[in-house]
Design a protein that fits this description.
Elements (H helix, E strand, L loop, with lengths): L1 H19 L7 E13 L8 E6 L2 E8 L2 E8 L4 E8 L2 E8 L2 E7 L5 E7 L5 E8 L2 H13 L15 E7 L2 E7 L7 E5 L3 H10 L2 H9 L7 E9 L2 E11 L1 H4 L12 E10 L2 E8 L4 E8 L2 E9 L2 H8 L13 E7 L5 E5 L4 E8 L3 E9 L3 H6 L8 E19 L2 E4 L3 E3 L3 E3 L1 E4 L3 E10 L11 E3 L5 E9 L2 H32 L1
Parallel strand pairs: 23-30
Antiparallel strand pairs: 1-23, 2-3, 3-4, 4-5, 6-7, 7-8, 8-9, 10-11, 11-12, 13-14, 14-15, 15-16, 17-18, 18-19, 19-20, 21-22, 22-23, 23-25, 24-27, 26-29, 28-30
Helix pairs in contact: 3-4
């Protein structure tokens, strides 16, 4: 009997532990993807793709043999419009005020084109931006690759369209109005006032300026990443445990220890809401506000070099194996990581927010990156590149009035058809159903389904008694019975007192 009790108790504890474990909750879900590059060994192909959120979907550019194809997709990944830009490479895209702006490179090596397109992907304005030949390759590389770090090459500060160029040994800013007219040129020298001027249009300059102007190594690298209303997000890395490394290396075979942790800071009107470090990631980059969440790229591992820094053992540098791994990291506004997306074979970069979620680049490489750099390849190296869209899973809240049940999923993506069923309890029937979005607007119902809007919803179900009149009679009867009992009690109480 004691043995049976122990077995029963063990089974009970196991059951309790299973039922009390909270299932992992997802807040974003992959919707669709488009292949941009297939088994290419040309790394420059990575920079020849761009993407932006536009209208109710995304516009994606992809370089092909004779030029660039621009594709406009809706939120379901269906093609709305496609055009070919012959003999042009699209370096970057930017959406502003219902139009698309693009930087394109053609056959000349002393200028690039700044073009404006409408929602039908028709070119409605174009201007040339001069770049001296000796600086052309640098501008090309910068404009193609800064987007992967979440930096816009095209600025829209002050309602003007601003792009970067170079003349002589100096940088140059070219300002245009929205129609690409009223051109204004500003030469940027190394003076502080010019750097401050540049930072107005490219805020990241301020962050780098603050880092390099200090004499000692920074405790934290903080880069402004995004803003929403009065909120600002800064991402970067915590270097407080790497001070000795920056002070100088006396023995290259005995490196000082260095522990690098990613960091994230959220402020509201310059008041810090949270300032946290994350041990699982070396650095967080490209953090963006998406719905009620913060989405960032987390660099998880850059190979043995991090082990060397953390252990303080230089080892053999030529044997360092670099294998970059990155995740999509989703946090709430308290700075807690609520979901991660990724695996060791994927590289993620370049988050593009939209009304329904975000798009990100996903890369797949078949060999270690160091082998590509050194040329020590045992097999042909290639990579695949995708534009991958993720949607927010919107909350479906329920409210039941009366006696009955509703069966419905608790989350859904915008645009999806949501089906539900209702079951009244005995003696009740369904009175009415009302569905409202987060702003209180009524959502249309089609029989027992509705289309999920771009916000959370509340579904209110009301059940009424089958026969309300019977209910009223029952209540009146109950009241009369209670009054009779009360009267008899008082009468008997007085009678007893009289006898006494």
């Amino acid at each position: 009997m004691k043995k049976m009790k122990k077995i029963f108790l063990t089974m009970l504890l196991i059951l309790l532990s299973i039922t009390t474990v909270k299932a992992k909750e997802d807040f974003f879900e992959k919707s669709w993807n488009k292949e941009l590059v297939n088994k290419s060994n040309d790394v420059e192909r990575v920079g020849l793709t761009s993407k932006i959120s536009f209208g109710e979907g995304y516009v994606v550019s992809n370089f092909e043999s004779e030029g660039t194809k621009l594709s406009y997709y809706n939120n379901k990944g269906e093609t709305i419009k496609e055009i070919e830009l012959n003999k042009q490479i699209v370096a970057t895209l930017k959406e502003y005020d219902g139009a698309i702006y693009a930087v394109t490179f053609g056959e000349t090596d002393d200028s690039y084109q700044l073009i404006k397109l409408n929602s039908n992907l028709e070119i409605i304005a174009s201007e040339s931006v001069y770049v001296e030949s000796k600086n052309f390759s640098i501008i090309t590389i910068v404009s193609c690759f800064v987007k992967y770090a979440g930096i816009d090459f095209i600025s829209t500060v002050d309602g003007r369209i601003t792009v970067l160029s170079a003349q002589g040994n100096d940088a140059a800013l070219h300002h245009f109005d929205k129609d690409l007219k009223n051109h204004e040129l500003k030469i940027i020298t190394g003076e502080e006032k010019d750097l401050r001027y540049t930072a107005k249009y490219y805020p990241i300059v301020t962050d780098f300026f603050n880092i390099v102007e200090n004499d000692k190594a920074p405790d934290k690298i903080r880069i402004f990443s995004d803003k929403k209303d009065n909120l600002q997000i800064y991402n970067g890395a915590d270097l407080t445990k790497c001070e000795a490394l920056f002070e100088g290396i006396e023995d290259e075979n005995n490196l000082p220890t260095c522990y690098i942790n990613s960091s994230l800071k959220l402020t509201e009107n310059n008041d810090v809401l949270f300032d946290k470090t994350y041990d699982d990631y070396l650095v967080l980059i490209d953090a963006k506000f998406i719905g009620n969440y913060i989405v960032a790229i987390g660099i998880r591992n850059v190979g043995d070099i991090i082990d060397i820094l953390q252990k303080g053992d230089a080892g053999k540098i030529e044997e360092i194996a670099i294998n970059i791994q990155s995740d999509i990291v989703i946090l709430n506004k308290s700075g807690e990581i609520v979901q991660t997306i990724g695996n060791k074979n994927n590289l993620y970069a370049g988050i593009t927010p939209s009304n329904n979620g975000f798009m990100v680049y996903k890369g797949e490489v078949n060999v270690p990156i160091l082998d590509i750099i050194t040329g020590n390849l045992e097999e042909e190296a290639y990579f695949n590149l995708y534009a991958e869209a993720y949607d927010i899973l919107r909350e479906i809240n329920t409210k039941v009035i009366g006696k009955g049940d509703i069966s419905i999923t608790n989350k859904s993506k915008s645009g999806e058809k949501v089906t539900y069923s209702v079951t009244p309890k005995k003696g009740y029937n369904l009175s009415h159903i009302k569905i409202t979005d987060a702003d209180g607007n009524t959502v249309e119902i089609n029989e027992n389904s509705f289309i999920m809007p771009s916000s959370d919803v509340t579904i209110e179900v009301t059940f009424n008694p089958t026969n309300p009149e019977t209910k009223d009679i029952a209540i009146i009867g109950t009241i009369i019975t209670m009054l009779i009992v009360l009267g008899l009690t008082i009468h008997n109480y007085k009678k007893v007192n009289f006898l006494r």
